[in-house]
Amino acid sequence: EKLTALAVMQDAPVIPVIVLDEVAQAVPLARALVEGGIRMLEVTLRTPAALACIEAIARHVPEAVAGAGTVRSQADAQAAQRAGARFAVSPGYTPAVGRACRELGLPLLPGVATGSEIMLAQEDGHTDLKFFPALQAGGAAMLKAWSGPFGDVRFCPTGGVTAANARELLALPNVVCVGGSWLTPADAVRQGDWARITQLAREAAALR
Ligand code: 3PG
Protein backbone atom coordinates (compact mmCIF):
# COMPACT_ATOMS: atom_id res chain seq x y z
CA GLU A 1 0.00 0.00 0.00
CA LYS A 2 1.10 3.55 -0.69
CA LEU A 3 3.10 5.41 1.92
CA THR A 4 1.82 8.89 2.81
CA ALA A 5 3.42 11.76 4.71
CA LEU A 6 0.86 11.16 7.46
CA ALA A 7 1.81 7.48 7.71
CA VAL A 8 5.47 8.49 8.00
CA MET A 9 4.52 10.83 10.85
CA GLN A 10 2.29 8.32 12.63
CA ASP A 11 4.76 5.45 12.74
CA ALA A 12 6.64 6.60 15.87
CA PRO A 13 6.73 9.68 18.11
CA VAL A 14 10.09 10.79 16.68
CA ILE A 15 11.57 10.97 13.18
CA PRO A 16 15.34 10.93 13.61
CA VAL A 17 17.20 13.55 11.57
CA ILE A 18 20.37 11.79 10.50
CA VAL A 19 23.65 13.23 9.19
CA LEU A 20 26.10 10.59 7.95
CA ASP A 21 29.67 11.08 6.78
CA GLU A 22 30.50 7.46 6.02
CA VAL A 23 28.53 4.91 4.03
CA ALA A 24 29.76 2.21 6.40
CA GLN A 25 27.82 3.88 9.25
CA ALA A 26 24.45 3.70 7.50
CA VAL A 27 23.45 0.07 7.92
CA PRO A 28 24.52 -0.42 11.56
CA LEU A 29 22.92 2.91 12.47
CA ALA A 30 19.64 2.00 10.77
CA ARG A 31 19.65 -1.39 12.48
CA ALA A 32 20.29 0.26 15.85
CA LEU A 33 17.33 2.60 15.41
CA VAL A 34 15.03 -0.20 14.23
CA GLU A 35 16.11 -2.26 17.23
CA GLY A 36 14.95 0.61 19.45
CA GLY A 37 11.58 0.83 17.69
CA ILE A 38 12.19 3.65 15.21
CA ARG A 39 12.00 2.76 11.54
CA MET A 40 11.14 5.94 9.63
CA LEU A 41 14.61 7.39 9.06
CA GLU A 42 15.34 10.83 7.61
CA VAL A 43 18.82 10.83 6.10
CA THR A 44 19.69 14.43 5.26
CA LEU A 45 21.20 15.26 1.87
CA ARG A 46 23.89 17.33 3.54
CA THR A 47 26.93 15.13 3.10
CA PRO A 48 28.57 13.60 0.03
CA ALA A 49 27.75 10.15 1.45
CA ALA A 50 24.03 10.78 2.00
CA LEU A 51 22.63 9.20 -1.18
CA ALA A 52 24.83 6.14 -0.84
CA CYS A 53 23.68 5.83 2.78
CA ILE A 54 20.02 5.88 1.72
CA GLU A 55 20.81 3.25 -0.90
CA ALA A 56 22.57 1.03 1.63
CA ILE A 57 19.70 1.24 4.13
CA ALA A 58 17.09 0.62 1.42
CA ARG A 59 18.98 -2.44 0.25
CA HIS A 60 20.16 -3.99 3.50
CA VAL A 61 17.69 -2.96 6.20
CA PRO A 62 14.23 -3.96 4.99
CA GLU A 63 12.68 -3.25 8.41
CA ALA A 64 13.61 0.43 8.02
CA VAL A 65 12.00 3.00 5.73
CA ALA A 66 14.72 5.29 4.43
CA GLY A 67 13.72 8.84 3.54
CA ALA A 68 15.69 11.83 2.35
CA GLY A 69 15.90 15.06 4.32
CA THR A 70 17.05 18.51 3.21
CA VAL A 71 15.31 18.06 -0.16
CA ARG A 72 15.37 21.54 -1.72
CA SER A 73 14.95 20.98 -5.47
CA GLN A 74 13.51 18.72 -8.13
CA ALA A 75 17.02 17.32 -8.64
CA ASP A 76 17.27 16.45 -4.94
CA ALA A 77 13.92 14.67 -5.06
CA GLN A 78 14.88 12.69 -8.17
CA ALA A 79 18.26 11.71 -6.75
CA ALA A 80 16.66 10.68 -3.47
CA GLN A 81 14.16 8.44 -5.17
CA ARG A 82 16.83 6.90 -7.42
CA ALA A 83 18.75 6.03 -4.26
CA GLY A 84 15.71 4.27 -2.83
CA ALA A 85 14.24 6.95 -0.58
CA ARG A 86 10.56 6.24 0.13
CA PHE A 87 9.74 9.72 1.42
CA ALA A 88 11.18 13.23 1.34
CA VAL A 89 11.44 15.97 3.94
CA SER A 90 12.17 19.59 2.99
CA PRO A 91 13.33 22.48 5.20
CA GLY A 92 10.92 24.85 3.42
CA TYR A 93 8.25 24.66 0.75
CA THR A 94 8.21 25.66 -2.90
CA PRO A 95 5.61 24.64 -5.48
CA ALA A 96 8.49 23.23 -7.59
CA VAL A 97 9.58 20.82 -4.85
CA GLY A 98 5.97 19.87 -4.20
CA ARG A 99 5.36 19.21 -7.90
CA ALA A 100 8.57 17.20 -8.26
CA CYS A 101 7.62 14.91 -5.38
CA ARG A 102 4.06 14.48 -6.63
CA GLU A 103 5.34 13.58 -10.11
CA LEU A 104 7.67 11.00 -8.57
CA GLY A 105 4.99 9.64 -6.26
CA LEU A 106 7.33 10.46 -3.37
CA PRO A 107 5.47 11.41 -0.17
CA LEU A 108 6.71 14.84 0.97
CA LEU A 109 6.79 16.28 4.46
CA PRO A 110 7.20 19.98 3.62
CA GLY A 111 8.81 22.40 6.05
CA VAL A 112 6.88 25.53 7.00
CA ALA A 113 7.42 28.33 9.51
CA THR A 114 4.73 30.90 8.66
CA GLY A 115 1.03 31.05 7.87
CA SER A 116 1.76 31.97 4.24
CA GLU A 117 3.94 28.89 3.83
CA ILE A 118 1.22 26.69 5.33
CA MET A 119 -1.27 28.19 2.84
CA LEU A 120 1.10 27.59 -0.10
CA ALA A 121 1.58 23.97 0.91
CA GLN A 122 -2.17 23.54 1.45
CA GLU A 123 -2.88 24.97 -2.02
CA ASP A 124 -0.85 22.08 -3.40
CA GLY A 125 -2.66 19.50 -1.29
CA HIS A 126 -0.26 19.12 1.63
CA THR A 127 -1.93 18.98 5.04
CA ASP A 128 0.76 17.11 6.98
CA LEU A 129 3.66 19.47 7.50
CA LYS A 130 6.96 19.82 9.27
CA PHE A 131 7.25 22.93 11.44
CA PHE A 132 10.85 24.06 10.98
CA PRO A 133 12.78 25.36 12.78
CA ALA A 134 10.22 24.68 15.48
CA LEU A 135 11.72 25.94 18.73
CA GLN A 136 13.47 28.86 17.08
CA ALA A 137 10.27 29.93 15.28
CA GLY A 138 7.89 29.87 18.24
CA GLY A 139 7.62 26.30 19.51
CA ALA A 140 4.51 25.11 21.33
CA ALA A 141 3.00 28.62 21.49
CA MET A 142 3.16 28.89 17.71
CA LEU A 143 1.51 25.48 17.26
CA LYS A 144 -1.29 26.52 19.62
CA ALA A 145 -1.81 29.73 17.65
CA TRP A 146 -1.95 27.80 14.36
CA SER A 147 -4.49 25.30 15.69
CA GLY A 148 -7.25 27.90 15.20
CA PRO A 149 -6.87 29.07 11.59
CA PHE A 150 -5.11 25.88 10.45
CA GLY A 151 -7.16 23.35 12.43
CA ASP A 152 -6.98 20.89 9.53
CA VAL A 153 -3.16 20.77 9.48
CA ARG A 154 -1.03 18.25 11.39
CA PHE A 155 2.55 19.05 12.27
CA CYS A 156 5.91 17.43 12.92
CA PRO A 157 7.87 20.11 14.82
CA THR A 158 11.60 19.80 14.11
CA GLY A 159 14.55 21.97 15.11
CA GLY A 160 15.58 22.41 18.71
CA VAL A 161 13.48 19.45 19.86
CA THR A 162 15.06 17.33 22.60
CA ALA A 163 14.13 14.43 24.85
CA ALA A 164 13.32 17.08 27.46
CA ASN A 165 10.85 19.18 25.46
CA ALA A 166 9.40 16.54 23.10
CA ARG A 167 6.59 15.54 25.46
CA GLU A 168 5.09 19.02 25.65
CA LEU A 169 5.00 19.19 21.85
CA LEU A 170 3.61 15.66 21.44
CA ALA A 171 0.77 16.53 23.83
CA LEU A 172 -0.56 19.20 21.44
CA PRO A 173 -3.57 18.05 19.40
CA ASN A 174 -2.08 19.25 16.09
CA VAL A 175 1.26 17.48 16.64
CA VAL A 176 1.56 13.92 15.31
CA CYS A 177 5.28 13.41 15.90
CA VAL A 178 8.46 15.42 16.30
CA GLY A 179 11.76 15.35 14.46
CA GLY A 180 15.25 15.72 15.83
CA SER A 181 18.89 14.83 15.71
CA TRP A 182 19.21 13.82 19.37
CA LEU A 183 18.79 10.10 18.66
CA THR A 184 21.96 10.07 16.61
CA PRO A 185 24.64 12.10 18.42
CA ALA A 186 27.65 12.71 16.18
CA ASP A 187 30.10 11.18 18.66
CA ALA A 188 28.04 8.00 19.04
CA VAL A 189 27.85 7.61 15.27
CA ARG A 190 31.58 8.26 14.88
CA GLN A 191 32.45 5.75 17.60
CA GLY A 192 29.97 3.18 16.38
CA ASP A 193 28.22 3.22 19.75
CA TRP A 194 25.10 1.54 18.34
CA ALA A 195 23.91 0.36 21.74
CA ARG A 196 23.63 3.96 22.89
CA ILE A 197 21.65 4.85 19.79
CA THR A 198 19.31 1.90 20.33
CA GLN A 199 18.74 3.11 23.89
CA LEU A 200 17.99 6.66 22.70
CA ALA A 201 15.59 5.25 20.11
CA ARG A 202 13.87 3.10 22.71
CA GLU A 203 13.32 6.16 24.94
CA ALA A 204 12.04 8.14 21.95
CA ALA A 205 9.68 5.36 20.90
CA ALA A 206 8.21 5.36 24.41
CA LEU A 207 7.51 9.12 24.47
CA ARG A 208 3.90 8.67 23.52
C1 3PG B 1 18.42 19.94 11.48
O1 3PG B 1 18.32 21.04 10.99
O2 3PG B 1 19.48 19.31 11.53
C2 3PG B 1 17.20 19.28 12.00
O3 3PG B 1 16.13 20.14 11.99
C3 3PG B 1 17.41 18.78 13.37
O4 3PG B 1 17.57 19.84 14.20
P1 3PG B 1 18.04 19.56 15.71
O5 3PG B 1 19.51 19.23 15.61
O6 3PG B 1 17.77 20.86 16.40
O7 3PG B 1 17.23 18.41 16.22
Bound molecules: 3-phosphoglyceric acid
CATH superfamily: Aldolase class I
Strand content: 15-25%
Residue stretches low in confidence (pLDDT < 50, at least 5 long) are none
Q: Count the beta strands.
A: 9
The neighbouring-strand order within the major sheet is 3-2-1-9
By CATH, the architecture is named Alpha-Beta Barrel
EC number: 4.1.2.14
Organism: Ramlibacter tataouinensis (strain ATCC BAA-407 / DSM 14655 / LMG 21543 / TTB310)
Protein name: 2-dehydro-3-deoxy-phosphogluconate aldolase
GO molecular function: 2-dehydro-3-deoxy-phosphogluconate aldolase activity
Written account of the structure:
The chain is of the alpha/beta class. It has one domain: TIM Barrel (Alpha-Beta Barrel), CATH 3.20.20.70. The chain contains 10 helices and 9 strands. The strands form 3 sheets. It has a 4-stranded parallel beta sheet. Strands 6-7-8 form a 3-stranded parallel beta sheet. A two-stranded parallel ribbon has the order 4-5. Helix 2 crosses helix 3. The protein is globular and about 45 Å long. The two termini are 25 Å apart. The model has no long low-confidence stretch (mean pLDDT 98). The structure holds 3-phosphoglyceric acid. 3-phosphoglyceric acid (3PG) binds next to loops.
